[in-house]
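Quick one: structure for this chain?
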Amino acid sequence: MRSGTNMQKKESAERKMSKIKTKKVLTPEQKKKRIRNIIIVAVILVAASVATYWMQPQNKALAESEVFSEEEVKAQAEKIIGFLNAEDFDSLQSLVVPDMQEIMNKERMDEGKARISEDWGDFVSIETMQDAEIIQRGAHIAAVYVTAEYENIEVHYTLAFNEDMKLASFGIQ
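Got it. Here's what it folds into:
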């Protein structure tokens, strides 16, 4: 029995030894090639990291913006909400990007309002405005979240302006 156990240990040790790889000796040319490949991979990883960072949106307070004036953005948001409340969609058209012009009309706004409530009542006031600058892929956007009070409901508007201060995105809740 002992010899069987010793034999098994010996075979196990031999298997382990056969699995151990011997270290190759690299020629100077192979070493240069390996170093070059490592450098290429490192450069690609750094480039990918920079590209990923650049594509991610960065937010900052609008007051810190070098592109937008916080007062001008808030005034533009108030003007747009005023045109919506007055149902002055002709005046509104000059303040929105071309892609938004066909959806910023009475029919679409009535649909949006109805989803929130059938009876808003008259506009009372703008309660709060929160703003931020969003930078993504080199483009700057001014975003404003507005809470407006109406006689029968509180409404939340989300407005986003491009660098030309045209309304580029609009949401209502």
